[in-house]
């Protein structure tokens, strides 16, 4: 299909842009299948691990929504002698217990409801030529002789629709039509790493060259094939922020048992992920570990510095307090002249009132007679 866009000019149309695309018209259901597995290292190579379930996810290409109201079924044959499996779900899981190459086959059937065809009328029965019929009524008798013009044909000579016509537009007795889609692929099943476990964590005394780090040995076991590489990821306690990633080749002879040593620069709580890898698979184990720090780590000098600073602050505070108490100056309370006059006048007023109200309490020969109001 080619689409061209024109701009209307003064006299003619001028082409502006052109787009084209290829389309396929088919009576088959277009589909593809996504294959995935938990510990598979690369799903695109069609190599998977035995004794681990494989997920088959069917995706149907139906941009026009033609199959929205249809009943879709999925018939699987995994090629390992387990027989056929029919399901109404587009997602299926299967576990292969043997190694080798297997052919996977899928048939998708869609039953699509359509309007029913109108009922075909039944042809009338043939009659012999020269048949005479009579009709009579009360007024007159009339005789008619008719020669039928009907021709018969044996059922074997009737035109029958082809199989393509039935597939395309002829519904069955239940007013449905059928569409099919097919998928076929070959996959390889090998032995891979199925599971990894951390069985022991041991703190190691660092050497003089590693005095600034805390060393921890992780003893790891695995099931399945033997790994060729080991990767250690040290993250924060939530296992979200990665601090360091170290990958090294490992040599495992008969039994999958190895020790991985990890260095920590600072004390704290860490999430440690250990991944064992071979050519086709990988498996992961996680652990949460609390590290106290090495004797010569960088946190110890910082801690000693803060402790010494605290002692110095306390010492200088005590010295300053002693010097202040010894050399401080005495400052008498200062009184203003106005406050003294007001206070003296108030005292004279109360003494005068007291002398008027309680004359018997006054001295007969007071020593101080210079003050006014005292007799």
What do these coordinates show?
- It is a single chain.
- The termini are far apart.
- The model is unreliable at 130-170 and 294-302 (pLDDT under 50).
- The chain has 375 residues and is an alpha+beta fold.
- A 5-stranded mixed β-sheet has the order 4-12-9-6-7, with helices on one face. Strands 16-15-18-19 form a 4-stranded antiparallel β-sheet, with no helix packed on it. Strands 3-5-8 form a 3-stranded antiparallel β-sheet, with no helix packed on it.
- It has helices at residues 163-169, 299-327, 337-357; strands at residues 2-8, 13-20, 31-37, 47-49, 54-60, 71-77, 84-87, 91-94, 100-113, 132-136, 141-145, 176-190, 193-204, 214-224, 229-235, 242-249, 257-264, 268-277, 282-291.
- 15% of the residues lie in helices and 41% in strands.
- β6 and β7 (84-87) form a beta hairpin.
- It is built from 3 helices and 19 strands.
